[in-house]
Amino acid sequence: MLMLQWVLMGACALALSNGSSADYLDPYLLQTKSLPSDLNFMPSLSNGHLGYTVFGDAIFMNGIYNGASGRSKRARIPNWLNISAEICDKFGCLTDDDVAGSEVSYEMDLRNGYFRYRKEYTKLGLTLEQRSYPHRYYNRALVYELEAKRSARLSGTAERINFPLFLRLRQQPGNNSDAFDFEEVNRKSRSGEDYRTLRGRTKILEFEPFQPEPHEIFVVFSESLEQDRQLEWPTWQASLQHRIIISIDRKEDVARKELQDLLQIEQHEMLRRHTQVWNEFWDNEFSIDIEGDPELSRIVNAGIFYLSSSLPSLTSNQANEPYYGLSPTGLARGNLEADYQGHNFWDTEIWMWPVAAQFHFDYGKILLDYRLRHLEAAKYNANVTGYEGARYPWESAYTGTEVTNPCCPDIAQQEIHISPDILFTLQKYFAQSNDIDWVCEKAWPIALEVAQFLVSRASCEESEDICHLRNVMGPDEDHADVDDNVYTNVVSKIALEFAEWAGGKCGNASSAEQTYLSWRALHDRLLILHDEELNYHPQHQGYKINATVKQADTILLGYPLQFDTSDSHLNDLHYYAKVTRESGPAMTWSMFAANYLGTGEPERAHEYFERGYKSYVRPEFKVWSENPIGYDGSANFLTGIGGFLQALIFGYGGLDFARVGDKSHMISRPALLPPNVERVTIKYIKFASSKCIFQFQNASSSFYCPELGGKRFELSQGNRKSQLNGSFNVTIKKGEPLLRISTL
Ligand SMILES: *[C@@H]1O[C@H](CO)[C@@H](O)[C@H](O)[C@H]1NC(C)=O
Ligand SMILES: *[C@@H]1O[C@H](CO)[C@@H](O)[C@H](O)[C@H]1NC(C)=O
Ligand SMILES: *[C@@H]1O[C@H](CO)[C@@H](O)[C@H](O)[C@H]1NC(C)=O
Ligand SMILES: *[C@@H]1O[C@H](CO)[C@@H](O)[C@H](O)[C@H]1NC(C)=O
Ligand SMILES: *[C@@H]1O[C@H](CO)[C@@H](O)[C@H](O)[C@H]1NC(C)=O
Ligand SMILES: *[C@@H]1O[C@H](CO)[C@@H](O)[C@H](O)[C@H]1NC(C)=O
Ligand SMILES: *[C@@H]1O[C@H](CO)[C@@H](O)[C@H](O)[C@H]1NC(C)=O
Ligand SMILES: *[C@@H]1O[C@H](CO)[C@@H](O)[C@H](O)[C@H]1NC(C)=O
């Protein structure tokens, strides 16, 4: 306890200046004076290599899992970055209670990519600022830094506080790790500080045939904080700065080099190189500017931040390792069941990918590359379950073999739609990039094997010329073991058609003709349920009218599948809206919104759009929960963010991409604005070699696409057709027909 009582005497008249003059909300700054009651909803920060949740007990590393099969989960590294500082004198340390009039503020700075926590001891003229971040360029490194200042005004009145002061640093990493055995392999003294290296080995293999050795990591500390540390703060020094760096990699020399490189630059330069990468992302790659609704704007920015920070840095000091996927709660989480153990699901391709690919095409590729690198495991999975080709597991982690939680074997057995979902997204990447070389090199090997799997999985009735996918579970997990789930069958049809096309472009032998014919035959005969009388799609065989469903399933036939946008799709929307569970996950409502926007009843979208985020986002740091507030659910739910941003960009924005023959099409219908919003500007939408500014307002939307890579395009709208030379600026107005820009 610091002896300060007398300092505070007479300080009772505390002038609170609440909500004063400038009510301008910086759309990139999330600021709060009180923390969320559940600390799972603190910001999750990551750089694609390492991640952690602020004040949490874990650091996680890309691709590092521990546990056998369904028990494999992200291997928890104690959160050695959870360091805090206190200002002390010889009588003790300042606590918030000690000093009335102290101000504390917690900030997530989205634009600069760090978390900051500031205490201002107004009466003492002292401030303490602490910051932490995973470095976006030196991405093996996690950084904690502090800056303590005293105001000039008070530094001359030393007798009022018991100088000299010092700062006490304390590390609270949480319990020992249950995933690693750690061993100290190096300890050095460098100018009084000790710098040490730990080697950690995971305890349990995921699946030996695909992971012969445990994971090994090296953790290098710029200083050890095994005991509390005191930093002297001499009286003559107005401010005190300090940093602690923790560098982690599979290779000791990589971890060590990262630390050494950072120690060679000044603290402010280290921060500058971090914020520079984030600033470049927002300025040159992706941002959504929303005019008219500052709160929505901050939720959108936070969503983009939490999603993109889980993805790898595209420029880094040392080469990145392969990326092991975007799990529903990101890289900064993965220890809890509620974090889906850090596994990859269809969430990646169907919910997050469409947005991530617009952040940067490289992200589109990196995410799909994870699937290609695990093709052998998917083939293994098909074989052991009795099928041909490649069957992607419902959940996968390091090895790419099935790791679905032992609780729920039927999900792994039945939710086969994940394999065609992946093909749907491979096709989407071509629809956006027009990159045929990539298709042949990366997509075709996957498409070939998945198509074979579908053929072997289907059961056909020769007599009736009909094929079924039996004993499946669709996205609606409340209905297990059904036949012909309509979503599963439609996405499989799309997958087969893509495989056939890719085979024609990339396959090599005419002997493959027979194979392609078998794909075509299944494509043509796969049953798509439709009730003629009620003119809607029953979700599966024997679906009973009014039976409750868990989440968006059949309605996905419109957006994103673009398979049926007729009246019966509108009837599906009317019908399934009535029978979907209240507690459904966030993206359910976003999908109702995105789908209504494509119909003749677009106004119905607004209510769903708001429902899809308002009750899912925690107020302080705009962190998402999987379930509405009041229900338990995962924190930092990136899947929900993906659905929400899709509803905004593709639903309200009216944008889509399609492959038509060998061409890529960017398709735009007249946009609509969410309630209260005056204008939306997205910088940049990527299409083929162009990077477009896409802007929509009440009555029109426009694409300004400067020429970049020398592709030519064709514009068509109604009867109008014209050629666009590389660079173009086109506008579509309310009431006009679809606008298509296609590659030539
Ligand atoms: C991390 O540090 C904060 C204080 O800085 C503390 O409240 C929290 O309990 C710590 N977390 C763990 C896991 O110990
Ligand atoms: C930490 O370990 C203690 C003792 O084993 C246990 O009671 C506690 O639940 C653990 N805390 C967490 C967050 O796992
Ligand atoms: C699984 O692989 C084995 C060994 O290659 C093979 O003999 C068997 O036919 C395969 N099973 C199926 C269903 O393809
Ligand atoms: C033809 O494609 C198959 C796989 O589809 C591959 O194994 C084979 O090496 C290819 N042959 C040539 C000549 O490229
Ligand atoms: C389904 O529910 C609606 C309204 O709740 C009701 O009007 C209708 O009769 C029900 N249909 C069937 C077949 O039960
Ligand atoms: C949008 O434009 C329509 C006319 O196309 C107009 O009636 C309406 O008031 C406008 N809404 C806003 C919010 O500006
Ligand atoms: C491209 O089109 C624009 C406007 O239509 C025109 O001003 C420009 O000269 C054209 N550039 C080329 C290289 O044809
Ligand atoms: C693109 O066209 C729109 C509408 O004609 C115009 O308002 C806008 O300024 C143009 N943008 C550029 C960058 O030329």
From TrEMBL:
Keyword Zinc-finger tagged: no
SUPFAM superfamilies to which the protein is assigned, alphabetical: Six-hairpin glycosidases (SSF48208)
Assigned keywords, A-Z: Glycoprotein, Hydrolase, Signal
The keyword Cytoplasm appears for this protein: no
Signal peptide feature range: 1-22
Recorded coiled-coil stretches: none
InterPro entries the UniProt entry points to: 6-hairpin_glycosidase_sf, 6hp_glycosidase-like_sf, Glyco_hydro_65_M
Domain Glycoside hydrolase family 65 central catalytic: 333-544
Molecular function terms from GO: alpha,alpha-trehalase activity
Pfam families per record: Glyco_hydro_65m (PF03632)
Annotated GO biological process: carbohydrate metabolic process
Recorded family membership: Belongs to the glycosyl hydrolase 65 family.
Listed name of the protein: Protein-glucosylgalactosylhydroxylysine glucosidase isoform X1
Organism whose genome encodes this protein: Drosophila lebanonensis
Source taxonomy: Eukaryota, Metazoa, Ecdysozoa, Arthropoda, Hexapoda
Gene field: LOC115631476
